[in-house]
Amino acid sequence: MVELNRDVVIVGAGAAGLTAANALRKAGLSVAVLEARDRVGGRLWTDVIDGAMLEIGGQWVSPDQDALIDTLADLGLETYDRYREGDSVYVDQTGRLTRFTGEIFPVPPATEKAMVDLIDTLDGLAAQMDPDRPWEHPDAEALDRISFEAWLAERTDDQEARDNIALFIAGAMLTKPAHAFSTLQALLMAASAGSFSHLVDADFILDKRVVGGLQQVPLLLAERLGDDVFLGRPVRTLEWGDGTGVTAIADDVTVRARFAILALAPNLYPRISFVPALPRLQHQMHQHLSMGFVIKVHAVYDRPFWREQGLSGTAFSPYEISHEAYDNTNHGDERGTLVAFVSDRNADDVFRVSAGERKERILESLSHYYGPEAKNPVVYYESDWGSEEWTRGAYAASFDLGGLHRYGADLRDPVGPIHFACSDLAGAGYQHVDGAIRMGRLVASHIIEEARA
């Protein structure tokens, strides 16, 4: 058993924890980072599967993600534009495919008007929200009492308009059915990206990728920390007390420190035994947070055949098993890669069948967008974060109905020497690596200030 003394022990070697660790070291504080996995990165994971480089976790960079963009520049990483030339495709509830350009799906005029009206309303409500303080929205309590599905139903009886607007929050972001989260939670998702319009605009929210993969961010941050990063060391017990610091007991290593940062998703806090137990408020609050569920599907082909048809690779439908898909071809790769997403209830359904049938159903869905060639990839892989031992869901934790207004103001509050930092707790950049970096910086600044007091 290795025993260490540090100023700060960080639990989790994702972007939040490693950002915080580097900031603390720069300020002259000693750190140790304990990571349960055998790799750094958390929900960022770039790997080679059957000879193809795949972004198993997060991957995109948006123009408003200043914290991430600054970090990429600091680390010397390059970006490239997501391929988007040509037409997008949309499949309606009858199964009819329509090619289109722009942001609004090709729907009947009345449905288009209903969608535009909903987007305008959501933009107005999101503009009233500080994403770091969503509970202070003028209508926070009322908006947190009504599900996003019910709120949409109150505003239009056009089912296709409701399905399409729900798609951008429920399927694409929170990865939960629209009846399972509040309108306030939906507005936080929109405000965290600058507006609901940004979520609708794939060319904005999915703008660029990193040459070589986004996991290079945590990998390079970890390099700067050297031997202060310990992999394969899940923290089993965290002893703490006001004025006495913390003792983190992990497999084969114990760290005594003045402060601790839990840089992991809230749904994983119960994996740690706290001595003494966390206060009642934290126990209650964390029970109202849960992960969504999505399968990220990677299909690699001998060439990007959809481009020959004048297609961008961008595809949407709330009525397909795969509700959205994109050209995800790697920088400089002659092969073509599609990335598709199967979310919430659809993901539940396809995991009730065999792996072979699941693959067949998903590729059949892709063929509805791109034609029969989509059924024959040379590499096929499913990122299933729901079964990943140290994640157990995607993309981030969100509150149930009423939880955000009830507990949001308490979510980041430290408990004695224990601080909290992850993308799940972010305002701007919520559930993205940008938010993780922001939270790592924020918590580090608080500890530095406290340590110097």
UniProtKB/TrEMBL annotation:
Cofactor: FAD
Entry annotated with the keyword Signal: no
Origin: domain of life: Bacteria
Alphabetized InterPro entries for the sequence: Amino_oxidase, FAD/NAD-bd_sf, Flavin_amine_oxidase, Flavin_MAO
SUPFAM superfamilies: FAD-linked reductases, C-terminal domain (SSF54373), FAD/NAD(P)-binding domain (SSF51905)
Amine oxidase domain ranges (all copies): 16-448
Pfam families xrefs: Amino_oxidase
Keywords, sorted A to Z: Oxidoreductase
Similarity remark: Belongs to the flavin monoamine oxidase family.
Protein name according to UniProt: Flavin monoamine oxidase family protein
Source organism of this protein record: Microbacterium terregens
